[in-house]
Write a structure and sequence with these properties.
Blueprint: H1 6-18, H2 21-37, H3 45-87, H4 103-125
């Protein structure tokens, strides 16, 4: 049984809740109400400050919630991909944990795999299969 922190539970719940269509509709309604009340408040500085402050605070907080959920999702996907690489016969274990490499090392891998993809496309154009491993 895994134990999740209060922040993880809150971030997941808030991100799930805020990503739903009714919440978007509520946000649009709030903006609509703000626009409609403009003439009543004579489009005053305070009227503008209310929406600016509200949206700034919500945006500021949502950035942290979204980043938290994005970080967790990315880490989970990377671990799943690592497991697939590890469990696949003939796969290169050097590809495990690539996200931790420096940019120049990632670029070297990208160039290698770009060349493999190009060679596979040539094979396909010749009517051959592009499956299998390129190593002898």
């Amino acid at each position: 049984m895994s134990h999740t922190s209060w922040y993880t539970r809150f971030a997941k719940g808030a991100a799930h809740f805020c990503g739903r269509p009714p919440v978007f509709a509520i946000a649009v309604a709030i903006i609509g109400i703000w626009i409609v009340t403009g003439p009543f408040f004579r489009f005053s500085d305070t009227w503008q400050l209310v929406i600016n402050t509200g949206t700034t605070i919500i945006t500021f907080l949502m950035v942290f919630l979204i980043q938290n959920t994005q970080n967790r999702d990315t880490q989970a996907i990377q671990l799943k991909l690592d497991e697939l690489i590890r469990a696949t016969q003939g796969a290169h274990n050097a590809l495990l944990d690539l996200e931790e490499l420096e940019e120049e090392n990632l670029e070297a891998f990208r160039i290698k795999y770009q060349a493999l993809a190009g060679a596979a496309r040539v094979q396909l154009n010749r009517g051959l299969k592009d499956t299998g491993t390129p190593e002898p």
